[in-house]
Amino acid sequence: MAVRLAHFSDIHLTARPRGWRPRDAFTKRTTGWANLALGRARHFARADEVAAALRRELAGRGFDSLVFSGDATALGFPAEMTAAAERIGAHDPALPPGLAVPGNHDVYVTSAARARLFEEAFAPWQHGTRTSTEHYPFARKVGHVWLIGLNSSVPNFLLWDASGKVGAAQLARLRDLCAALGPGPRVVVSHYPLLMEGHRPEPRWHRLRDWAAVRDTAAACGASLWLHGHRHRWYWLPAAPNLPFPTICVGSSTQSGRWGYHDYTIDGRHLTAARRVFDGATGAFVDSESFECELK
Ligand SMILES: [Fe+2]
Ligand SMILES: [Fe+2]
Question: Domains (ranges, CATH) in the chain?
Answer without folding.
Answer: 3-294 (3.60.21.10)
